[in-house]
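pinned: reference chain
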Amino acid sequence: MEIWINPACSKCRTAIGLLDAEGADYTVRRYLEDVPSADEITAVLARLGLEPWDITRTQEAAAKELGVKEWPRDEAARERWITALAEHPKLIQRPIITADDGTALVARTDEAVREALVRGRR
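pinned: its C-alpha cells
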C-alpha cells in the first residue's frame, strides 16, 4: 500500500495516523517532492476509476492561473489535465492510497482510509 501525501495537509496526517493505529504496512510518497509522472497519474486514475478533473484541486493558485475550471472535461482534454497535474503536483487531491488489491482511493475521510485497509487485507 502506498499513500501520496502532502505533510502540511491535515487530512494526510489524519490518514497516516489511522494507518499507524491499525498497524498497516505502507509506503509514504511525498508527491510534491517525488512528483508522479503523467504515466503514473494515468495509472492511479485507472485504479481510482476517476478522471483527472475528479482529482484536481481547482481552488489552488496554480489552478486559477491555468484556468482549469473552464477546461473541457472530456476525452479530448484528458491529456491536458494529466499534464497539468504532472507539472503542478499541488493540484493533485490528497491523500491518495493505492491498495494492495490494485485499486486506489482518495482518502479524505476516515471511512475511505478504513476501506483502503479492508482492500489491502483481501
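why pinned: The mean pLDDT is 95. The chain is about 40% helix and 10% strand.
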